[in-house]
Amino acid sequence: MYINSKHLQILKVIQNNQVSNLKDISDIFLLSQQHTKIHLEDIYCELFLEPSGDLKIEDAIEKIKTFPNARNILKNLQQFTKNQKIFYLIFRLIKDRHIKLSHVCEDLDLTKRNLNNYLNEVSSILLPYKLKIKVSNKGLVLNGTSYSLKRFTYLLVFKFLIEKDFLPTQVRNELVNFIKINNFHEVRKDIIKFIQIVNCNFIDYTEISFFCFYLFFKAKPKEKKISDISSKEILKYKPSYYDNEFFYKIFDFLKNSSFKDTSAINLHDLFNIIDIFKYSRNRFEKHIYYKANDIRDIFAKYMGPHIYENPNFFNTVIPWINYSYIKSLFYIDDSKFLNLNLNYFSNSNIYEMTKEINYILPRFTLYESIFIWYSFSKPIFKELNNIFVFKNLPVTIIPTLIEEIYKKHNIKISDYVHLRSFSEYSKKNTIHNIVLVENFSIHNTDIPIKNLYFPIPNYKRITPT
What is the pTM of this model? Predict the structure, then answer.
């Protein structure tokens, strides 16, 4: 039986969200029901060591739902997908720069003939980044400039950190050793502060982006660092569309944080990251704008013509489109939406909308759809009683989410706080109940916790195309 990351994702949806309907699972993963059924039968066979036979698929889901230690059992059986084999091979080349053919074939369970086919695909991925593989009797060697290696390694590790929860154990262990740093908590604290200064969304994605930048764009010996840049030459590095106050804030932070050892010549790469999350309109090519225009028609179809009048539409959507392109380039399997409580999703139109968007952007997921859906809903903030705690959700959608929680669950919320700040917040405020819509735990608290299903604003009317 072939168990891969998709089986583990489906298992998580069943056990964390108590989903018990084949159609719901198919909609969540944007898969056909037949394809989903095959995955469920694989899971059942491995857990119960018997074929599902004449057992109804809904009954099989119910049995899977309560099976103890199911994730660890499947994790131990997990195999590499073809995509994972390709990028693991690239990762080994990045990490070791030279690997023996026999070792690669053994690790990936490949014949030398199959390896040649994989190398053709690896070469096509590396080519735009000016990296090449040299093949000899002794093995494989990766060649390229220092900058090309830095840039590609940044994107590769970004991919793995997005996918980390469902990567094969071997890849996860090697990744942890590859990116291990002694001052992790200090760096993470600086990154959180930096995100606040930049004032951008995509909490997890920005955090991972800046972390990868910190790891792979450090200055080499004798190379100029950010800390070496004098106040007289600072403005030489300023992008023309940054206002001075914002730029000086960024620079002051960089020079007095973990990022002070970053290479000065790689500062433009940091500004490119900020552009993705904040200055999106200024730096994107026309074809991304055209994609946003096409997506606007789909959102208007499902949410109403007011979408055409929203002045923030392109500024909100374009960063997500850019992110979808990055996912396509690196075949990123993003399952961030599984962090939401998807039980009793109140509006199935969002699944149909995401399917339509997938024709334009194949890597656009339910998570992006939910974020944009909320962004264009009209928030009504009320002084209420309970505290909403969130972890991976962009802060800009929280007021609308609070309104929907009140409408769907009749629970009034007085304030909201990120999980990182919860401990400090709870010391200064009286909290009677905590409300969540994501799958995470809050430790060291006796306050009652209500974990609710994720409510979607209900737009019933679909205008004709």
Answer: 0.83
